[in-house]
Amino acid sequence: MEKNYNFERKKLMLPEYGRHIHQMVDYLCTIEDRTVRNEQAHVVVEVMGNINPVLRDAADFKHKLWDHLFIMSDFMLDVDSPYPMPDRQTLHPKPDKIEYPSKRIVHKHYGKNIERMLSALKDIPNEQARKAIASNIAKYMRTKSFEYNQEYPNNDIILKDIRKMSEGAVELTEDNINSGRTEYKQAQTNNRTRKSFSQGNRPNIKNNGKTNKQGSKRWQNRTQYK
Q: What is the pLDDT along the chain (226 residues), one digit of tens a residue?
């Protein structure tokens, strides 16, 4: 008995049609007489349409069946189709290549958006507006520097970085930075900082004579069920 496992068989181009339809299409490719091949191709298309009778009312139903016929034959079937043969590249288009940013981030702890915002300040004609925006950005820069280095940077470093990334369009002073300075504190969750719920600071709740194992009381006056 000859064994015929599925993993040894030919891969199905369109599994929804089943292996028998694929075998019919493979047989069409072996017919040498073109007239007979065209007749049999129309018969196979009718059989394919009977598998999905609900879609018969669709406008492009026949066109889709002929496209599937060519796909299952791996575009090797040579018949006179009422519709043009689909292109392999059209059915399986290659995605467009994604252009990854190649520009190096000079200050990684600030991020690329900070560089873009400071670089765009040179297009703002109002000097007062530029300084107000830069002061808010400086506040954020101090926050990101603390997250990165776990310490606040010197004001001279912030002023130098802002002047460099804005291409000299913004000139801030230490007063501008100090006016927008805020302390950034990370949330600390530690078992030692949790509130100790001792017996003294618990709310007065009736326990009906019940305490935990550390207490001396036990269940008192329990009803005995017999």
A: 567 777 777 888 888 888 899 999 999 999 999 999 999 999 999 999 888 777 777 778 888 899 999 999 988 888 998 888 888 877 777 788 888 777 777 777 888 888 888 888 888 888 888 888 888 888 888 888 788 777 777 778 888 888 888 888 777 777 766 665 444 444 444 444 444 444 444 545 455 545 455 444 454 555 554 4
Q: What backbone phi and psi angles, to 5 degrees, belong to 30?
A: -90, -10
Read off φ and ψ for residue 193, nearest 5 degrees.
-85, -5
Angle between the 61-72 and 18-30 helix axes, to the nearest 10 degrees? 70
Model confidence, pTM:
0.44
Kindly give the residue spans of alpha helices, DSSP state H, lying in the chain.
18-30, 34-51, 61-72, 88-91, 112-120, 127-149, 155-165, 174-179
Nearest to 158 by CA among 177, 130, 175: 177
Burial call 56-73: b when 16+ CB within 10 Å, e when fewer? eeeeeeeebbbbbbbbbb
CA-CA distance, 152 to 191, in Å (whole number)? 27
The residue assigned the tokens 């100790």 is 196
Distance CA 201, CA 65 (A): 79
